[in-house]
Amino acid sequence: MASRSARTWRSAALRGLGLLALATLATTASAQADLRHARDNYLLHCSGCHQPDARGKPSAGIPDMRATVPLLLATPAGRAFLIQVPGTSASALSDAEISGLMNWMMPALIGRHDVPAFSTEEVGRYRRQPLDDVSAHRAAILNDGASTTPDKATGASPGPM
Ligand code: HEC
What we know:
Blueprint: H1 2-45, H2 47-50, H3 65-72, H4 76-84, H5 86-89, H6 95-110, H7 120-127, H8 134-145
Helix pairs in contact: 1-6, 6-7
Organism: Cupriavidus basilensis OR16
GO molecular function: electron transfer activity; heme binding
Keywords: Signal
């Protein structure tokens, strides 16, 4: 009797472990699917201008985001600008897709692993504050950034662009 209940217990425990392993696998798989979805969205909606690796084409007015995004991240207005800029805010993507895209892009393309995640709510808030004059607003933010220390992650110095 005792050994039978021990066996029952053991098989229940093993089943529990199996379920736990499955749940962990499912979570990992869905996180990976989210990342793939974010990368696909970037490739479909952004890379035509920004290039697959975010280098852009500065000679044609498309900034090299690997250099400019860290500078913009230095101020709250710059963080908002990443979402308010027409390429992002006027895209066909939902707020949730944009937050996923940004949270994928920061480490994957910009090389920044320390950026607080964008929430869907934060994206929606910035998106509802469109900019009147994008290039003047951008220049003002970057000039504000010039008074702060050079960005440690890139070693770039936030001088005139
Ligand atoms: C039609 C070309 C084009 C497309 C498509 C585009 N962008 Fe842009 N993006 C630009 C230009 C040009 C700028 C510079 C600011 C400006 O004049 O709008 C820019 C600026 C940015 C910036 C701020 C960096 C900086 O230095 O100003 C971010 C972040 C950004 N884009 C993200 C995106 C994302 C994300 C997508 C896709 C959802 C996207 N863009 C699609 C052209 C584009």
